[in-house]
Design goal:
about 130 residues, mainly alpha, Butyryl-CoA Dehydrogenase, subunit A, domain 3
């Protein structure tokens, strides 16, 4: 017998949604997701303009991978045991997301890059220390 919140998904009333989504609202992940989008689009925009993008790419990679982990963690929590077993896609999403945290530069390395870039920018003495060339 699936837990009540899973069984209720297909036919639940609108009034039940806030309860189902409470873990999401309590951490207000939508704002984080939107912030991640903005960081990613900003880095992509600079990249399109062929500007140096190391700092902005690391901001986006670090923030989006951490938000993604929080999202799949909450999804797994909502599904309970059903989120953990392989019969449901949530565990796959969790593992996929974890690989984003270390693939193409781990969280720790992104932080190192950011600190180095900020120090480099500050040393350059430019108006905006984050836009070191
Ligand atoms: C499924 C999968 C797919 C992959 N696909 C690709 C791919 O397509 N292309 C690609 O290039 N690579 C790929 N990788 C490799 C991935 O990029 C590396 O696993 C990742 O860069 C981490 O390197 P590592 O495993 O050698 O860990 P290590 O470098 O040994 O790091 C281990 C831990 O120590 C931390 N650490 C290391 N150095 C420091 C430091 N100086 N300061 C603080 N912390 C540090 C790391 O953050 C990490 O948490 C893949 C890996 C996996 C598992």
């Amino acid at each position: 017998m699936p837990p009540q919140h899973v069984a209720c998904f297909p036919d639940c009333h609108t009034s039940a949604l806030p309860v189902i989504l409470f873990p999401f609202w309590s951490k207000f992940l939508p704002a984080d997701i939107q912030t991640g989008r903005i960081l990613a689009y900003w880095a992509a925009h600079l990249c399109d303009r062929q500007e140096r993008v190391r700092l902005e790419a690391s901001y986006a990679k670090l923030f989006c991978s951490q938000v993604g982990m929080r999202v799949v963690n909450q999804a797994m929590q909502i599904f309970g045991g059903y989120g953990f077993i392989t019969e449901f896609p949530v565990e796959r999403l969790y593992r996929d997301m974890k690989s984003i945290e270390f693939g193409a530069g781990t969280t720790q390395i992104q932080k190192l890059i950011i600190v180095r870039e900020l120090i480099k920018g500050a040393g350059a003495g430019e108006g905006n220390p984050q836009r070191a060339t």
